[in-house]
Design goal:
heterodimer, A: 8 strands, B: Rossmann fold, FAD/NAD(P)-binding domain, 5 domains, 5-stranded parallel beta sheet, about 25% helix, binds flavin-adenine dinucleotide, binds iron/sulfur cluster
Chain lengths: ~280, ~675
């Protein structure tokens, strides 16, 4: 089984900490992760709003490359990329004519043979079964797992976890000693792409998530999406200003939380890169 | 020499839109022995039938093939037409061009080719048909009504009042069903108990009705007019004849914390209990699962206190064998509960309740004596939100259908709330207001205009608790999808109506079909809404789909008429399409070798043993014999018989072989 990785733009940019922690975990558990060669943008939020062909061709090219690289599956840590890629795979599987059409555009054969997994599926498959004896600093804190919108929706396409009250991150976190809380904002919108155009809306929406998690005693928000992370972490100053409060709760990628629990250094898992200070005891 | 007439129906455009009927008629007309091949727009209509009848006489036809819809639909129609023209009805066959061809294919040459092939098989078959005579069977004039809700009650009373005997089987300790739990009923707001309980009593006292509560159908065999039903009467652990229903035992039972089903869990009951004060019969049963004696081996407090010594701890379940002529299924429905909705807190929040729970709160006989008090702390809710379509009309929840009753009962709930809490505020979040019924729209208008219930068109995305309030988040789609947030003290979910528990098992016992939501299926959605696909078994009430009381009652009366109609006949005629073991002159008697392998495979226990004996009584040969009354013509025995001694009338080996050969041969 050959597992590849498609990092997408954010893991090389704003979410380098995420990237570092994924690779740090891979190394710690002896897992090979080869990048899809010559990868391109997945289309993100822009392509599918503008042009259907483009929105399918971009992910299809990535998937075709993965096939060419002989990858049986690729891990896609960014929830948005994961969503776009899976959607494309589903659409093209349903409609052979469309598949031929898109293959024509990308000038590459696309068969749909490489599987797509998100970071939690990757953890569930390769890391949690081997956790025994590896945990040196149990993550003994109350945490609010925040899934956002793209990891679990649309359910019909992704068929992953429960769309209303997802549990997969909560389960992983409890395996490393954390106490996940029940709170109603697990899948509420963080403001997403408005991060750049309407920071006020992001401040309002992300602020609600943070406020609720903090008020229910969470000591950290756990995420698996670069966009969620940047809205909840990078935009914290704006959020605090908007709400007139001093929210201090850190926002941690699930891979960082595991990395910390198995004793990797803060630097190795990118914990030093956050805007909101992370101090895990 | 066979003289076959073929009649090709367009079924309006249902067939002719994709099949070239003229070409089919022309091609078939050239086949050997076909003396007439013609087409018509509606063969089942009066002119269509006349066409067939006239042709039979004019062409002196010996066989007829009607190429139209499914035989399920119109085979009886066309067979009757043939009989009226003097042809034995079983000389008529149907080729299904609609369900098997035109509906499932696109318009092109291949579709027409397939249509021709289908008709050809029936032409070849009908040449081998032979005249058959209907079988006469007796009718047992006693009906079984399963379920004692308002639908079952109505059906039982109506049948009983025509002078026929009825057995009612209800699985809970009392009859009454969901209606007995309701407070007041739309669209008139009359008290549910007041209109229901007199009927319950009537059932118990009617000389023609035998009531078995705490009982279930164990098995059903046989066929229309002649069902053999086994009923399991669960042990009530009590001698009903001696018990006076004083209820002393129920006050002394040490088990007091069992969630009360009748109060939808909003109250407790003891292990020996009468479900509600107006229950019929008004005598207790012991719930053995929760009784201290059955759990720990000691207690028997009820036995000690019972003044008439009616308690029977060692009472076994009783199995009754009944001969039944017709069955009415009236097992009702259930509703989803708050725990079905993760987005509304899975039933974790005490003050998020379902509609039935609200009925109990609003009911004068309920846990709060009719005061609207929220379950968590007994306070009067000042802000109350009703959520319509909770789960219904939501493919993501697996429930695509409209539950039909909730728009109306939600309006009723909001109204009842406003009548009791004048200063309170009631919101209803809805998708559409479906109030199509006599005086229904007017009822909803009253809620809006006179009682000032605030209707907000939009769905609720989530409900959560914060600082002691329920935060209800949704959208107002009439204000361009603007987000709405209400801080509520209590939320009532109009949860989807679903099939009752055990419906699937019951359907399988009765051999009747059910739909993908496990509601019982009617024989035809428009023309046979009370019949099932199994002759002699009828439907009444919400077991078919969620319905309100007027609809349940009307259907129940419909079912009762069907039963009475059946019972008005001295004997029933059955299709002679049954299996037969061949017979011939002695000394062979039959090619049957008497292995009786067919006996265990027959699902209807229709295979008997016939013995041929010499004058001195010595057995010469024992062979299989089919009971025509029991045989359902499934053909299982035919396939199994090693000596090919069994054949099925109407589907003989020769006939089926001819059909297959027709497909294989060029024409
Ligand atoms: C919250 C709410 C409010 C409502 N308000 C109104 C209203 O105001 N006006 C109105 O017209 N309608 C109202 N309805 C609808 C009304 O409840 C139904 O129309 C009615 O109860 C249907 O009657 P039924 O006899 O078909 O089914 P049910 O009432 O469900 O009765 C079925 C009976 O069959 C029994 N049973 C089930 N399975 C078996 C089995 N296997 N063997 C033996 N017995 C079995 C059950 O125990 C039950 O006694 C309301 C419904 C709800 C949920
Ligand atoms: S024996 Fe059972 S039913 Fe009777 S009083 Fe004891 S617990 Fe109650
Ligand atoms: S009756 Fe009204 S509330 Fe109930 S499912 Fe239909 S539309 Fe929704």
């Amino acid at each position: 089984m050959k597992t590849g990785i498609y990092p997408g733009c954010s893991l090389n940019g704003s979410a380098r900490d995420y990237n570092e922690s994924v690779f740090a975990l891979a190394e710690a558990f002896g897992l090979e992760l080869e990048q899809v060669s010559d990868w391109n943008c997945c289309g993100a939020t822009a392509a599918h709003n503008l042009n259907k062909d483009l929105s399918l061709a971009l992910p299809a090219r990535i998937l075709a490359l993965a096939e060419k690289n002989g990858m049986d599956e690729i891990i896609v840590p960014c929830a948005a990329c994961y969503n776009r890629l899976t959607l494309t795979q589903t659409e093209l599987r349903k409609d052979p004519e469309l598949r031929n059409h898109v293959s024509g555009i990308i000038e590459m054969d696309y068969k749909g043979t490489s599987g797509i997994i998100n970071v939690i599926e990757w953890i569930d498959k390769y890391i949690t079964p081997n956790l025994e004896g590896r945990i040196v600093i149990p993550y003994a804190h109350k945490v609010a797992c925040y899934y956002g919108c793209l990891l679990v929706r649309p359910h019909k396409v992704l068929n992953y976890d429960r769309p209303e009250d997802p549990q997969s991150m909560d389960l992983v976190m409890s395996k490393i000693g954390a106490e996940p809380i029940y709170y109603p904002f697990k899948t509420e919108c963080c403001g997403a792409g408005l991060s750049i155009s309407r920071t006020d809306i992001v401040s309002k929406l992300s602020g609600k998530i943070i406020e609720d998690a903090e008020s229910r005693g969470a000591e950290a928000i756990i995420v698996a999406c670069p966009m969620c992370h940047s809205n909840l972490d990078m935009r914290r100053n704006d959020i605090n200003k908007y709400w007139g409060k001093e929210f201090k709760i850190p926002v941690i990628f699930i891979t960082q939380a595991i990395g910390h629990a198995i004793g990797l250094t803060d630097k190795k898992i990118g914990l030093k890169r956050h805007f909101v200070d992370v101090k895990i005891s | 020499m066979a003289r076959i007439g073929v009649f090709i129906c367009h079924c309006g455009e249902n067939i002719s839109a994709t099949v070239d009927c003229a070409k089919v008629a022309e091609t078939i007309g050239k086949l050997r022995h076909v003396v007439l091949s013609t087409e018509y727009k509606y063969m089942c209509s009066d002119p269509g039938q006349t066409l067939i009848k006239d042709a039979i006489k004019e062409y002196n036809l010996t066989g007829v093939v009607v190429s139209a819809c499914s035989p399920r639909m119109h085979e009886p129609t066309f067979r009757r037409a043939c009989a009226e023209a003097g042809l034995n009805p079983y000389m008529c066959e149907m080729a299904n061009l609609r369900e098997h061809c035109s509906w499932v294919h696109e318009k092109n040459d291949i579709t027409t080719e397939k249509a021709i092939d289908i008709v050809r098989t029936q032409v070849e078959k009908v040449k081998l048909n032979y005249a058959l005579q209907p079988i006469k069977v007796p009718v047992t004039r006693r009906a079984l009504v399963i379920g004692g809700g308002i639908a079952g009650i109505q059906a039982a009373l109506d049948i009983a009042n025509t002078g026929h005997r009825v057995v009612m089987v209800e699985r809970s300790p009392s009859i009454g069903g969901h209606m007995s739990q309701l407070s007041e009923t739309f669209p008139t707001l009359d008290c549910s108990q007041c209109i229901l309980t007199p009927r319950m009593v009537e059932v118990a006292q009617h000389p023609n009705i035998t009531l078995y509560t705490y009982a279930e159908v164990e098995s059903v065999e046989g066929f229309i007019g002649n069902f053999k039903v086994k009923i399991r009467k669960k042990a009530k652990s009590l001698d009903e004849k001696i018990c006076t229903g004083c209820g002393l035992c129920t006050t002394k039972c040490p088990q007091k914390k069992i969630p009360n089903e009748f109060e939808q869990g909003m109250g407790n009951r003891p292990a020996i209990y009468i479900p509600f004060p107006q229950a019929v019969p008004n005598k207790p049963v012991i719930d053995r699962e929760n009784c201290t004696y059955y759990i720990k081996g000691k207690c028997k407090v009820c036995e000690i206190v019972c003044p008439t010594k009616a308690i029977r701890f060692d009472q076994p379940d009783e199995i009754l064998d009944l001969d039944i002529g017709a069955i009415v299924i009236a097992t009702g429905f259930d509703v989803k509960h708050a725990d079905f909705f993760p987005e509304y807190g899975y039933g974790k929040y005490k003050d998020v309740i379902d509609g039935l729970q609200f009925e109990r709160l609003a009911s004068a006989s309920g846990p709060t004596s009719g005061a609207i008090l929220r379950p968590s702390d007994g306070q009067v809710p000042k802000n109350i939100v009703f959520v319509a379509c909770a789960g219904s009309r939501d493919p993501a929840k697996g429930i695509e259908y409209c539950s039909k009753i909730c728009c109306m009962y939600t309006a009723k709930h909001a109204m009842l709330y406003k009548h009791k809490v004048h200063e309170g505020k009631a919101y209803i979040f809805y998708m559409d207001i479906r109030a199509a019924g006599k005086n229904y729209e007017e009822f909803v208008r009253r809620a809006i205009e006179e009682d000032h219930v605030e209707y907000v068109r939009g769905r609720i995305s989530t409900i959560y608790e914060k600082n002691g309030k329920l935060i209800v988040k949704g959208a107002d789609t009439l204000l361009g999808g603007q987000p709405v947030e209400v801080e509520a003290d209590m939320v009532v979910l109009a949860t989807a109506g679903v099939a009752n528990s055990g419906a699937e098992e019951l359907a399988q016992k009765l051999h009747v079909s059910y739909d993908s939501h496990k509601f019982f299926a009617e024989a035809h959605p428009k023309l046979k809404p009370v019949e099932t696909n199994t002759a002699g078994i009828f439907l009444a009430g919400a077991c078919q789909n969620p319905k309100d009381i007027p609809d349940s009652v009307s259907q129940a009366s419909g079912a009762a008429v069907k039963v009475a109609g059946l019972f008005s006949q001295d004997e029933l005629t059955r299709e002679p399409l049954v299996a037969q073991v061949n017979r011939m002159a002695p000394p062979l008697y039959s090619t049957c070798v008497g292995c009786f392998l067919c006996q265990p495979v027959c699902p209807y226990q229709a295979i008997e043993r016939e013995e041929f004996k010499a004058r001195d009584g010595k057995l010469i040969k024992a062979v299989a014999k089919i009971n025509e009354g029991l045989c359902q013509g499934c053909g299982t025995c035919v396939a199994l018989c090693r000596s090919k001694s069994i054949d099925l009338h109407g589907y003989s080996n020769q006939q089926v072989y001819a059909e297959v050969m027709a497909l294989l041969n060029e024409y």
